[in-house]
Amino acid sequence: MAEFVFVTKITDIVDGQILAFNIDETPIALARVDGKIVAFGDVCTHDDGPLAEGEIDGDCVVCPRHGARFNLVKGKATFPAAQPIPIYETRIIGEDVEVKLQA
Ligand code: FES
User: Fold this and answer.
1) Range of the domain at 86
2) Is 81's pLDDT higher than 90?
3) Where residue 19 sits, what CATH number does that domain have?
């Protein structure tokens, strides 16, 4: 069973920015969306674009390469991507942001 692992301090996550991490060889991205910390897979399912280099637009992340959008609640993709990205459970303990790597 997956455990929560420490990723960063909540004070390091600024509105509008996406941070990239590699946790146990899993590339994940963290962002603050509507005040909530979200963690998602940092690899676009269209052609491996780095989503942490994209932009947050509403409740989606937009891939910087060809513009696919992924919903940050369910991971659902729009064209040209077809497959969803993993969305990871997060929790805040004090100032620590922790992520459960199993999507
Ligand atoms: S690599 Fe992300 S849309 Fe093509």
Assistant:
1) 4-100
2) yes
3) 2.102.10.10
